[in-house]
From TrEMBL:
Gene3D superfamilies: 6.10.250.2080, secretion proteins EscU. It comes from Halobacillus salinus. Required for formation of the rod structure in the basal body of the flagellar apparatus. Together with FliI and FliH, may constitute the export apparatus of flagellin. This is Flagellar biosynthetic protein FlhB. Residues 17-36 are annotated as: Disordered.
Length: 361
């Protein structure tokens, strides 16, 4: 029964129930894993491209017809030489570029803007790295028959249905004009079919943008679900950030040892060591250049106190027994800091006593 309880606790701790931490989100972003809907890109692209066609359509038509007129009126009469072919090629390329450049420019702007709206500025090479797991047929089969694949299938069918219904409705509404197109001039027929195509494109783009809002919401939900963390993951992350407690304790121990060694090196320069005499030892030094008040250069209890007294004895540093003062100064004084004002009188008397003895000696 106890083993069963432990297993249940382990599985509960390992269950992905917690929201991702900021560090987890940053790590997944660096890997290129961000919520993103391709329908947003497609909708923006179609909307801007057909919008530019609607605005610049007449000038594009004039450019194309002018190019054909020039080709049949002048280019057909030129001699077929290398220079003439080169000249015709350059002229035709320039005229076609004037038509294509606005569309290409708008397409690039649409692609960049739609990605910036979704993921912001992000540069990462992680998705381009070679990953042999992607070649695993079992994992591939799991993706094909996963819930995400089913959602993508439903979404694709919905898009096809929406675009189909929109285009069919517009064509059906203009069926009479289409039937009469043969009775119109070429220019009028081209204008009608161009306008109808642009209307279908804009309507389809708006429908895709509406659908993309739903898709992006789902992508965010799915992304949040995939990056969820277990309580164990959060604890492990916290350990990695803050450091393992055992390692931290070893570092602190090492720092204490270094601090103690540095403190002991100051004892030979002390003026006096105030003792308990068995449990406490406080080494005091008065240096007018460092401070107006005496400074505690070392302090310790038990083993450290004995070590301070041994070093003081070896270096002929005077030791004075004052039990209450030693206890009080150990509690209220810090190493490398001036003593508290309340100890001035007592310490001054001890230093005066020490200086008198040293002068007699």
């Amino acid at each position: 029964m106890e083993f069963l309880k432990l297993d249940l606790q382990y599985f509960a701790a390992d269950e992905k129930t917690e929201k991702a931490t900021p560090k987890k989100r940053e790590d997944t972003r660096k890997k290129g894993q961000v919520p993103k809907s391709q329908d947003v890109n497609t909708g923006f692209l179609l909307l801007l491209v057909f919008g530019i066609l609607f605005l610049l359509g007449p000038s594009m038509k004039d450019t194309m017809t002018g190019m054909y007129e020039h080709a049949f009126r002048e280019n057909m009469l030129r001699d077929v030489t290398e220079n003439q072919v080169h000249t015709v090629f350059v002229e035709m390329t320039w005229e076609i570029s004037k038509v294509i450049a606005p569309i290409m420019g708008v397409a690039i702007v649409a692609g960049v803007a739609s990605n910036l709206l979704q993921v912001g500025v992000m540069f990462t090479g992680e998705p381009l790295k070679m990953d042999l797991k992607k070649l695993d047929p079992i994992q591939g089969a799991k993706k094909i028959f996963s819930a995400r694949a089913l959602v993508e299938l439903v979404k694709s069918l919905l898009k096809i249905s929406m675009v189909g219904v929109i285009t069919f409705s517009i064509i059906w509404a203009n069926k009479n004009h289409m039937m009469n197109a043969s009775q119109k001039s070429v220019e009028a027929a081209l204008s009608f079919f161009g306008t109808t195509t642009i209307i279908m494109g804009l309507a389809s783009a708006l429908a895709l943008l509406i659908l993309s809002v739903i898709d992006y919401t789902y992508q965010r939900y799915d992304h949040e679900k995939n990056i969820r963390m277990s309580k164990k993951d959060i604890k492990d992350e916290h350990k990695n950030i803050e450091g393992d407690p055992q390692i931290k304790s070893k570092i602190k121990e090492k720092q204490r040892q270094m601090s103690s060694a540095r403190m002991m090196s100051e004892v030979p320069e002390a003026d006096v060591v105030i003792t308990n005499p068995t449990h406490y030892a406080i080494a005091i030094k008065y240096d007018e250049e460092r401070s107006d008040a005496p400074i505690v250069v070392a302090k310790g209890v038990d083993f450290v106190a004995q070590k301070i007294k041994e070093i003081a004895k070896a270096n002929d540093v005077m030791q004075v027994e004052n039990r209450p003062l030693a206890r009080a100064m150990y509690a209220d004084s810090e190493v490398d800091q001036p003593i508290d004002e309340k100890f001035f009188k007592a310490v001054a008397e001890i230093l005066a006593y020490v200086y008198r003895l040293e002068k007699k000696m």
